[in-house]
Amino acid sequence: MLSLNLKASVEIYSTKRPEELIEFLNGLSKPSLIALFIDLLTLYFNDKNSSRLRELTTLWICGFQPNTEKLGYNGYRMNADTGKRVDCEVKPQNTDDPKKKLNGGGSFNDYTLERFSKDLENNPIILVSGFVGGKLIYIFEFKFECLKEKLKGLLERRFPKGQRREGEYLRSAGFSFRDYKDCPSLKLAYLRDDWHSFKDYLARDLIKYFEGLKK
User: Fold this and answer.
1) Is 86 left (phi over 0), alpha (psi -120 to 50) or beta?
2) What is the distance between the alpha carbons of residues 67 and 10, in angstroms, rounded to a whole number?
3) Looking at the structure, do residues 146 and 164 belong to the same domain, yes or no?
4) In 184-195, which positions are buried (b, 16+ CB within 10 angstroms) versus exposed (e)?
């Protein structure tokens, strides 16, 4: 349940002058401000209709900058050796239900043969992150080419003749950890220290992989 202070601040921000919001916030105690901010983060990290904060967290931890353009990949960074731009696509998963376990997966929505060819040529970095109740558990980093066979198979089933009409898409080209776990470019970019406390929310192959890192 949202706190009354959060509700009030959202209403004032959207309907009143900025000075009135500042006056309202100045009237709150420090513990109340902290609670309000935590409520705000909790709300948006678990938003089912937007993954923006989860995307930003994933990008920043891996050293990427968010792309400010409406179209294109989610983020980029400059290669220190070549000076070239390296694009990346973020695929964050979030769950708060142990029956809907994180499987190291993601999806490409409204996917096309043309987009697949472009992605293969550019070969961006894919960042797959997993969150439980808004808490980051892991980030896998790998090249797009690791998903070549999986996505190619999905597209061939959707477009068996190798062509599509305008307006036709593969609505969801989904993949999981199993589809890229043996890829040479795969690396674990982040793993939460207490990840084992969230084992009930993780698929078995992820648990096995994380436990194997200690050996």
Assistant:
1) beta
2) 27
3) yes
4) eebeebbebeeb
Distance CA 179, CA 33 (A): 44
**Nearest-CA neighbor of 152 among 187, 113, 121?**
113
User: Sheet containing 135-143: which strands, arranged edge to edge?
Assistant: 65-66, 75-78, 85-95, 125-132, 135-143, 187-191
Measured between alpha carbons, how far is 112 from 155 in angstroms, rounded to an integer? Answer: 7
pLDDT reading at 1 higher than 70: no
Predicted pLDDT at 143: 97
pLDDT tens digits, one per residue of 76-106: 999 888 889 999 999 999 999 999 999 999 9
User: Which of 176, 200, 175, 197 lies closest to 97 in space, CA to CA?
Assistant: 200
pTM for this one?
Answer: 0.89
Q: Are residues 187 and 205 in the same domain?
A: yes
- Co-location of 14 and 97 in the same domain: no
Residues spanned by the domain of 12:
4-45
Residue pLDDT, tens place only, 39-84: 999 888 888 878 889 999 999 999 999 998 777 899 999 988 888 9
Name residue, tokens 């982040």: 190
CA 41 vs. chain centroid, Å, equals 16
Domain tally for the chain? 2
Q: Is the pLDDT of residue 2 over 70?
A: no
Backbone angles phi, psi at 45, to 5 degrees: -70, -25
**Half-sphere exposure (Cβ direction) of 144: Cα atoms closer than 13 Å:** 21
| 3-class DSSP assignment, residue 162 | coil
